[in-house]
Design brief:
The chain is mainly alpha-helical and 298 residues long. The protein contains 13 helices and 4 strands. Its main location: membrane. It is found in: Membrane.
Length: 298
């Protein structure tokens, strides 16, 4: 609890809502699975080639909010680790871009992952059969890995401690993480591969141009009284209004800030939590970038 309390207190409103809602939704879906509404979670959140063919396009944007933490003991442990990573990486992103802009960023980033993932599954269906079209892309791991990749690639000439096993140049660190995920699961996790690829391509191809700006988020907030001026409050934390962020005031400036997402977020997080991250990494043998232990997922 002493370790969790400062992290929890550091979380703004959206992050707290995700930290509570993400595992809670898993319980809801498990309960619905035992009722006549067992089809509902798959209908809403199952992003696959088959769902796209059925025009369930909304699943491309919101499938990251679906998890099945209670399906097995390993899924539960990995789900807890997933929540820990959200608690580690999401607060700085939310404060930098504002709650609404960060939520929209999650939607678009997840759509990028799911879109590329579905293309890969469609190609594989030619030799694997129709079963490949049913493989879903769900959960927060892909967007977490995009954020992690952007963070380390913000300093490509640096290096990071890989769980106390080796010091790896930052430019290869996302690939090493991807390899560990695939090795633990004994198969290629294409959603993880796609997330890392997007992390590498984000700055080079200026993918931030496709992300909503804080100025756009601000206009949305003005139409929603619950989010205006940070009025929304969840478990003691306020919604971060777009008007309080550095990118607010012009779409061009905001887009530039978002396209430099990894560099700005990485530097801010390193400045704000450098001491605690270093101490945690030294104690757990983890990465100086906040990846503090073993894990897997997908």
């Amino acid at each position: 609890l002493d370790l969790l309390r400062p992290k929890w207190e550091d979380c703004p409103g959206l992050t707290r809502a995700l930290l509570v809602g993400y595992p809670a939704s898993s319980l809801v879906w498990e309960i619905l699975g035992q009722t006549s509404l067992s089809w509902l979670p798959q209908f809403l959140f199952n992003s696959s080639v088959n769902s796209v063919f059925r025009l369930h396009v909304w699943s491309l944007f919101i499938s990251c909010f679906f998890t099945s933490m209670l399906s097995s003991g390993m899924s539960f442990l990995m789900g807890l680790f997933e929540v820990w990573m959200m608690m580690t990486y999401f607060p700085v992103c939310e404060r930098e871009f504002g709650s609404t802009a960060f939520l929209l960023w999650l939607f678009v980033a997840n759509a990028m992952v799911c879109g590329a993932f579905d293309v890969i599954m469609y190609v594989q269906s030619f030799w694997k059969g129709p079963i490949a079209k049913l493989v879903p892309c769900n959960g927060m791991w892909p967007v977490i890995l995009i954020i992690m990749s952007l963070r380390v690639l913000a300093e490509p000439n640096g290096s990071s401690n890989f769980w106390g096993l080796a010091v790896i140049p930052n430019k290869w660190y996302p690939l090493a993480l991807c390899g560990v995920f695939c090795l633990i699961n004994m198969k290629i996790l294409w959603n993880i591969v796609v997330a890392v690829m997007i992390g590498y391509a984000y700055t080079h191809f200026r993918l931030g141009r496709f992300m909503p700006s804080p100025a756009t988020a601000g206009r949305i907030e003005q139409k929603l009284s619950c989010c205006r001026n940070g009025r929304f409050n969840f478990l003691g934390a306020h919604w971060v209004p777009a008007s309080s962020t550095a990118g607010y005031g012009g779409d061009a400036y905001a887009s530039a800030s978002l396209s430099d997402f990894g560099r700005t977020s990485g530097l801010q997080l390193n400045q704000n939590h450098g001491a605690s991250s270093s101490a945690g990494a030294a104690g757990a043998g983890g990465s100086s970038w906040g990846w503090g232990g073993g894990g897997g997922g997908g």
